[in-house]
Amino acid sequence: MPAAPRADLLGLTFAELRDWARGLVGFADRHHAALYRQVAGTGRFAPHELSEWQEAERGRPGTLATLTQAAAEEQAPHVARAESAHDPQHGTTTKLALRFADGREAETVLIPMRGGEHVTVCVSSQVGCRMGCAFCRTARMGLVRDLTAHEIVGQVVAAARFARIAPRRCLALRNVVFMGMGEPLDNLDAVARAIACLAEPRGCAIPGSRITISTVGRADQIPRLGALGLGQCNLAISVSSADDALRDRLMPVNRTHDLAALRRALAAHPLPRGRKLLIAYVLMAGVNDADADALALADWIGDLDAMVNLIPFNAFAGSPWQPSPPARIVAFQAALRGRGLHALTRTTRGDAVLAACGQLGTGKKEVSVG
Which of 105, 107, 151, 200 is an active site residue? Predict the structure, then answer.
């Protein structure tokens, strides 16, 4: 029985795709480089459209038939739904529901930066999430399954195609952040492979310096980042309380990887020159937004080379909290700055279509296929 056509080419490095295609039909690197650029740039495997392979077919009839039978033409996930929210000052934020081959979906967000001068793509690493953070809508789904490397890269390619941006040629698609559905460090091998593919010069050409990996605090996985070649990526850590008892309730990961363990892992994590750790703190009215909470956070950060990103809680149906009032956010930020910390407040974008931080997913329990 012949093998099913491959649909995972977006999860291959150039060397891997070249070796696979060369094993089928031979030919030189320039033929395979053209093929790789096409797959990474368009999400399609269509060698018959490339001049290099048209030339190869003329010299050796049957070459294109062999190639096209070996892989599916469509390599990127299908855009099942798209919802947008426009802000006159910041541009249009678009949330895509991307459907994979098994019918499962994950959400990806295109976020305009600098008034639309360039775009950040927020990708998911899992369908659902098992971390159980109380302020996150994705957590209500539970973990359905991990995403593969080609499904992760496929989100970037599908988002770029949707926005009519060629990721290799247009500076508009600038950054990739692993801040969508799922916990990246809970699926780290697939995330690492996806990042290696995204960085390929012949493909998307997005370097690690423009990729951010966000974690809820898997302290046991942080030491693996360097070993997996992710040392050049930016690291964001969701903290949201410097009190273990409160963090236990808000973020169950703290029960196995407490604040002390997390801080040790961060202190040991080597940072590229000129970079800082990004400490994310979701502010909820009357829960974790008092001046005392800010000072406790400053004490916990101590001498870590870090900046703080304050995130007003983004509400969703059934959530018991409200975002901290603007005056309270300003006071919290001032308390951190008074302790010498660099603290910024994230501008909320896309909340009208549940595309903001903590709002992705169905918001209901789903059945795992794993």
Answer: 107
Q: What is the pLDDT of residues 47-96, one digit of tens each?
A: 999 999 999 999 999 999 999 999 999 999 999 999 998 888 778 899 99
Domains and CATH numbers, the chain: 9-70 (no CATH), 78-353 (3.20.20.70)
Q: Cα(200)–Cα(145) distance, rounded to whole angstroms?
A: 26
For 247, which DSSP code?
A: H
With tokens 């480089």, the residue in question is 33
Q: Which residues of 136-168 are buried (b: 16+ CB within 10 A; e: fewer)?
A: bbbbbbbbbbbbbbbbbbbbbbbbbbbbebebb
- The tokens for 119 are 């775009």
Q: Tell me what pLDDT residue 117 has.
A: 72
For the chain, list residues with pLDDT below 50: 166-171, 369-370
Question: What's the token pair of residue 15?
Answer: 């060397």
107 assigned to active site: yes
The model carries a pTM of: 0.95
Amino acid at site 24: L
Give the pLDDT confidence score for residue 113 in this predicted structure. Answer: 83
Rounded CA-CA distance 113/152 in Å is 22
Distance from CA of residue 6 to its chain's centroid?
Answer: 24
Q: Which of 18, 20, 41, 44 is nearest to 31 (CA)?
A: 18
Q: Active-site residue among 129, 136, 204, 357?
A: 357
Pairwise CA distance, residues 270 & 111, whole Å: 29
* Phi, psi dihedrals of residue 149, rounded to the nearest 5°: -60, -45
At 366 the pLDDT is: 67
φ and ψ at residue 309, rounded to 5 degrees: -110, 110
DSSP state of 79: E
Q: Which helix (H) or strand (E) holds 234?
A: strand 234-238
| CA 161/CA 181 separation, integer angstroms | 21
CA distance to 114, 186, 216, 234, 313, per residue, from 274 (Å): 22, 27, 23, 11, 29
